[in-house]
């Protein structure tokens, strides 16, 4: 059948029918009729329709549209001069349904949204882009908007249009490179992707929404229309006080969790966000931790990446529930007095076909030069931090989790890989910056801006939130404000302390005397940053074994070593982080495909370590001398730091209030040291607040009867001293109450 074209060219109809027309809104919907008599002409393309009838919103028939092309192009002329509301009845195979025509609605994005997105300063970009259930002109549906400036055509596809990209092509907003459409009748739960024709006419693999609020359960990869504004929050008290809870003077003890393997059902299934709120949250609260840190919850395609290769940065993973379920989980944490930190991964993203890689047929989110846009360690792409829209995408994402989910902070993964252009690259495999150096100036600017917005009051987004950098080099000022040249993070993981001390602990005690500086070296730089001492998931994978398995000696010595090490860690300057399972000395290496070995708590030694970690947490929280000056040199003083031959350390910790002090003795040999004199900074009675050798924890119960008396005998450079019973492979903590 030859095309009948009263007022539109045959090639235009053919382009619409083929799904290649660059501006479908210029063709479809109501338009002025160009004929002498004027009026309006309505054009509809529905390849799934046998017939199309035009209706008033009340259901009155205005006429059956003539078919102008066998592909499903319908056109009808009206004598009316003024635009009017209408509906369509689609007849197909003997059934009919009524719809509102997407092409009768005006543009969606406001001018300010376009301007800010183009400028790269739209800090709530998620409110403009993505899929949003909404009502326009009294009609309910979903508005979609996506950035794809180099595409020739972008369509929304899903079950609602048989995944046919010709039915819902979008409108391009010039200048911002944003494509948009409002599809009436769609609701929450609709599954969708974007069908994109790239430059030169290349039909790309279907793409998930970069701003999708929910993703399908893997292995499916589509986005899901979701609301994120329905949760009624009950954490007002927490939100009002959390800034103080993140201060350098506050006790911060973090329990790091992989939600998929903390605990599993007997059939191997995941716990939901709701079950985690009921089980994980009270457990962590009772253990005395102040925060939970979850490994990445962004939607990701591969379980084995643990979430560190995310594609849905705006979607909590569907493995455990919906966005509303995750909001309830965060709320449950706050109501129990726990902060919730998430791992955030702006350092790289995988090149899965449905993701960000070559999103519009060009290297849109990533550098086109593999020397800048490819990560050799992880076989992933690297964001182009120098592109304003990409930096905006990431910065808005950081603020999104704080705003929409009340997340209390971001632990930023692999910061070092972002800071250095030559990270994991050989000579000739990287591109110097404009000054010829190896520093990634664009990434530095991005990180500083992100931190300024999180902490700054001008945007009001953070509200006491915190950022923590996993930065493994000696980059200066990571946790210093940007206005003094720092990167602006609140805290930095102390990777050097972790590596040095674990290297020391795995040695046989008979050799430790030759490596004493592994314990003491960290104090040379302990106050150069605001440090977190991390015993993270990275230390119990890839053949490293568990923390317990890395301790030397027979089983008794292994447990004693681990208990002594924990005592050292909890009294060392710096905030604390422990990966799940470490609190009860899990024996095997972590396996992300299985739950922790909770049955080990039936064994006294494992239960003893659990009780020790709980008591260390509460002692740390309740003793100002152990946390108030964690990040300041005034809070620490060596009593005996050079007893290498004894493999023994003694040091004092101080709080802000005069007289607030704690004294710590660590013995890293299996030899008890009776009547061992140590210096003390104050006289009088000192309470033996904790002894890792207590029988309660599985030790030999050598101790000091609960207290010691400091004599006016100068020792170790201190004005007072006392003889103490030092147990083997143990840490003993004495506390002096404030004056």
Automatic annotation (TrEMBL):
Task: Report the SMART domains cross-referenced here.
Answer: Aamy
Q: Does the keyword Coiled coil apply?
A: no
Q: Where is the Glycosyl hydrolase family 13 catalytic domain?
A: 256-604
Q: Which GO terms describe its molecular function?
A: 1,4-alpha-glucan branching enzyme activity
Q: What is its EC number?
A: 2.4.1.18
Pathway assigned to this chain's UniProt record: Glycan biosynthesis; glycogen biosynthesis
Q: Reply yes or no: does the keyword Transferase apply.
A: yes
Q: Output the Pfam families linked to this UniProt entry.
A: Alpha-amylase, Alpha-amylase_C, CBM_48, GlgB_N
User: Which reaction is catalysed here?
Assistant: Transfers a segment of a (1->4)-alpha-D-glucan chain to a primary hydroxy group in a similar glucan chain
* Residues of the active site: 413, 470
Classify the source by domain of life. Bacteria
PANTHER family tied to this protein:
1,4-ALPHA-GLUCAN-BRANCHING ENZYME
Question: What does the UniProt function comment say about this protein?
Answer: Catalyzes the formation of the alpha-1,6-glucosidic linkages in glycogen by scission of a 1,4-alpha-linked oligosaccharide from growing alpha-1,4-glucan chains and the subsequent attachment of the oligosaccharide to the alpha-1,6 position.
Subunit composition and interactions? Monomer.
Q: Can you tell me which family this protein belongs to?
A: Belongs to the glycosyl hydrolase 13 family. GlgB subfamily.
User: Per its record, how is this protein called by name?
Assistant: 1,4-alpha-glucan branching enzyme GlgB
């Amino acid at each position: 059948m030859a095309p009948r074209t009263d007022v539109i060219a045959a090639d235009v109809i053919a382009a619409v029918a083929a799904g290649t027309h660059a501006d479908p809104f210029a063709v479809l919907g109501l338009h002025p009729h160009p004929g002498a008599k004027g009026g309006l002409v309505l054009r509809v393309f529905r390849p799934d329709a046998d017939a199309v009838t035009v209706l008033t919103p009340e259901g009155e028939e205005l006429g059956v549209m003539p078919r102008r092309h066998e592909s499903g192009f319908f056109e009808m002329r009206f004598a009316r001069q003024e635009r009017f509301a209408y509906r369509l009845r689609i007849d197909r195979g003997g059934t009919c349904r009524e719809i509102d025509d997407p092409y009768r609605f005006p543009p969606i994005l406001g001018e300010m949204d376009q301007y800010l997105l183009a400028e790269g300063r739209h800090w709530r970009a998620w409110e403009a882009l993505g899929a949003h259930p909404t009502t326009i002109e009294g009609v309910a549906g979903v508005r979609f908007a996506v950035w794809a400036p180099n595409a020739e055509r972008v369509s929304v596809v899903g079950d609602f249009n048989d995944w046919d990209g010709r039915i819902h092509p979008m409108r391009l907003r010039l200048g911002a490179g944003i494509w948009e459409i409002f599809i009436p009748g769609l609701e929450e739960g609709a599954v969708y992707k974007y069908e994109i024709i790239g430059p030169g006419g290349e039909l790309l693999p279907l793409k998930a929404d970069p701003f999708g609020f929910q993703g399908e359960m893997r292995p499916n990869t589509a986005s899901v229309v979701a609301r994120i504004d329905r949760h009624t929050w009950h954490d007002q008290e927490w939100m009002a006080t959390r800034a103080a809870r993140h201060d350098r003077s506050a006790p911060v003890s973090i329990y790091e969790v992989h939600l998929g393997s903390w605990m599993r059902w007997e059939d191997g299934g995941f716990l939901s966000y709701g079950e985690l709120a009921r089980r994980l949250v009270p457990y962590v609260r009772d253990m005395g931790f102040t925060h939970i840190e979850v490994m990445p919850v962004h939607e990701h395609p591969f379980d084995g990446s643990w979430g560190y290769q995310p594609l849905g940065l705006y979607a909590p993973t569907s493995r455990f529930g919906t966005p509303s379920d995750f909001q309830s989980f965060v709320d449950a944490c706050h109501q129990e007095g726990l902060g919730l930190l998430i791992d955030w991964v702006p350092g790289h993203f995988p090149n899965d076909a449905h993701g960000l890689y070559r999103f519009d047929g060009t290297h849109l989110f990533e550098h086109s030069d593999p020397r800048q846009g490819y990560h050799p360690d992880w076989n992933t792409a690297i964001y182009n931090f120098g592109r304003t829209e990409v930096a905006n995408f990431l910065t808005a994402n950081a603020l999104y989790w704080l705003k929409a989910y009340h997340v209390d902070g971001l632990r930023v993964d692999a910061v070092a890989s972002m800071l250095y252009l030559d990270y994991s690259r050989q000579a000739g495999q990287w591109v110097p910056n404009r000054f010829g150096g190896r520093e990634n100036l664009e990434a530095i600017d991005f990180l500083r801006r992100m931190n300024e917005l999180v902490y700054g009051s001008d945007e009001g987004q953070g509200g006491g939130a915190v950022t923590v950098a996993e930065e493994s080099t000696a980059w200066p000022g990571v946790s210093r404000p940007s206005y003094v040249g720092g990167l602006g993070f609140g805290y930095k993981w102390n990777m050097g302390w972790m590596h040095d001390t674990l290297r020391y602990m795995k040695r046989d005690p008979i050799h430790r005397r030759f490596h004493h500086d592994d314990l003491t070296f960290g104090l040379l730089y302990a106050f150069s940053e605001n440090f977190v001492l991390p015993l993270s998931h990275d230390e119990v994978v890839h053949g490293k074994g568990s923390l317990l398995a890395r301790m030397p000696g027979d089983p008794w010595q292994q447990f004693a070593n681990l208990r002594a090490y924990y005592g050292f860690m909890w009294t060392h300057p710096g905030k604390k982080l422990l990966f799940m399972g470490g609190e009860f000395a899990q024996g095997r290496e972590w396996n992300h495909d299985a739950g922790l070995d909770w049955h080990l708590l039936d064994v006294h030694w494992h239960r003893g370590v659990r009780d020790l970690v709980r008591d260390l947490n509460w002692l740390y929280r309740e003793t100002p001398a152990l946390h108030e000056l964690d990040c300041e040199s005034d809070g620490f003083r060596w009593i005996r730091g050079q007893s290498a031959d004894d493999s023994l350390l003694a040091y004092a910790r101080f709080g802000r209030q005069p007289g607030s002090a704690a004294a710590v003795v660590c013995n890293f040999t299996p030899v008890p040291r009776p009547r061992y004199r140590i210096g003390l900074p104050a006289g009088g009675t000192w309470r033996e607040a904790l002894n890792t050798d207590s029988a309660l924890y599985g030790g030999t119960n050598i101790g000091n009867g609960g207290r010691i008396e400091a004599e006016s005998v100068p020792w170790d450079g201190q004005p007072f001293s006392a003889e103490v019973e030092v147990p083997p492979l143990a840490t003993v903590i004495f506390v002096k109450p404030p004056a």
